[in-house]
Amino acid sequence: MWNPGERVEGYTDFLWMALIAALHKLGADLVDASMWLSYASMLAVFVIVWRVWALWAEEDSTLARPAVLAVTLLLISLNDAMVFWGSQGSKRGWRRRC
User: Are 88 and 42 in contact (CB under 8 A)?
Assistant: First the structure.
């Protein structure tokens, strides 16, 4: 402990906390907001991968095959970290909802 006796609020990601705080300020439930923000972030990853593939495919015809994109998205969606953290919404995840 760096400062004994002082209370400190900690977080691991400033942008995540700012987005959750903004949604809370708009009246959203914190648990639901974090879940939906998590799902939106996962969707954004897939859209970014698709867009990078499309740009890359314009330059190289061997990458233009839809199978390349399908395998890439499948591997990302089967990644255990993506599945676990992408569906949690917060550090506590589904346990908090119960």
Answer: no
Residue 31 identity: V
Instruction: Tell me the pLDDT tens digit for each residue of 8-32.
Output: 666 677 888 888 889 999 999 888 8
Across the chain, what does the average pLDDT equal? 80
* 90 has pLDDT over 50: yes
Q: CB-based contacts of 56: which residues, under 8 Å, 6+ apart?
A: 63
Contact indicator for 38, 69 with CB cutoff of 8 Å = no
Cβ–Cβ under 8 Å, residues 33 and 24: yes
CA dihedral angle for residue 32, residue 43, residue 16, residue 98, rounded to 10 degrees = 30
Tell me the C-alpha distance between 78 and 46, whole Å: 12
